[in-house]
Amino acid sequence: MVTASPGQCARAVFMVRPVAFGWNPETAPTNLFQGAPPVGGELQRRALAEFERLAAALAAAGVEVHVLDDDPEPRRPDAVFPNNWVSLHADGTVVLYPMLAPSRRLERRPELLAELVARGGFRVERVLDLTHHEGAGRFLEGTGSVVFDHVARRAFACVSPRSDAAVLDDLCAELSYEPVVFHAAGPCGAPVYHTNVMLAIGRRFALVCAEAIAAAERDAVLERLAEGGRQVETISAGQMARFAGNLLELDAASGAGVLAVSQRGWDSLEADARARLRAAVGQVIAVPVPAIEDAGGGSVRCMLAEVFLPRA
Whole-structure pTM over 0.90, yes or no? Predict the structure, then answer.
């Protein structure tokens, strides 16, 4: 058995309760996981129910969950995905990220961070603001664009309209991480919009849609993921499309690993793959979030912003 590496998994997350969830026409052109505009009403009600189920399930599993509320105005249809605008690091750094859609930039709310810090007793040492890149048309959408290997201090990112290698270099220089840049495409040949729909890194495993990675870069990425003895689990493009790659390992208060994933993504995996992942963590929390997946083009991992900040 591989010894658990310290520092990879957060014990706390924050989530933003949606009040105006909906299909966003600004994000649809670059997010092919986002379905057609939904027909009929009650989308917000359904998304809110899915959100509450996930938050409750994680809390019951021993994860420290901080739920913060969105405001109805201005309307933020994607506020349920806070991991795209901020990351919160163990050295006390808060990173603010440049985002492609103007409507999504409204999600960056200093008052939410202040509430989180006060509620959790966290300490912030510095704010690294990368949002100036928006003026140059360069974007990097948080831990959607970047999947961190905190143990090896590497930052993986697949290039897309939402994930710019130059911004990644800027981030990594500030955090003293090594950038690992690659190209990945979905079944239609378009770039995978966010790295975290095709790649997840836990303490003892890495899960990746290897077939989506450009052939010339694939072996190098897989070798990096396997370093340190991690078990590398591969998924197909079809499983990626069902959000099997959009999962996140967290720490319960007991120190046991908690794997958070959508029911759709979990069910798409073969039985032996599910067994191996169960063996790599303490427990699996699979929650159905179909309204959020279909209309928002993101899943469980996108709904969770990890909090690694030190306590005050």
Answer: yes
